[in-house]
Amino acid sequence: MEFVIYALDKPGDGQPRQQVRAAHLRVAMAHAEHFIFAGPLLGEDGHPRGSLYVLRFEDRAALDAYMAQDPYFSAGVYESVTVWPSRQVVPEALPGALQAELERQLAADADRAQATAPSR
């Protein structure tokens, strides 16, 4: 299952982030197979103000175990962390996944149209 994580740093000069950055990068490298995308959210000045992650784990418990190891989460770098379960559609994780998504949507649209059509 994919998860989107939106994490905002605590206000300040970014020192907490810098102090644990090497450890954070080591943990990320050790779990690289779980990363679809991750990177800093930049302020207008170009400095990090938070992070955006798209990660793939078996379930929320596995994600939570990862987050407990990553010092950006466990050392208090972030003021707020929001996690959403998600599903990768584009780019296709599996060939034909986008076509299957379209077919599911078209079937749902047809069912909805039939349910709201006036009966004769």
UniProtKB/TrEMBL annotation:
Protein name: YCII-related domain-containing protein
Superkingdom assignment: Bacteria
Family named by the database record: Belongs to the YciI family.
Domain YCII-related: 1-85
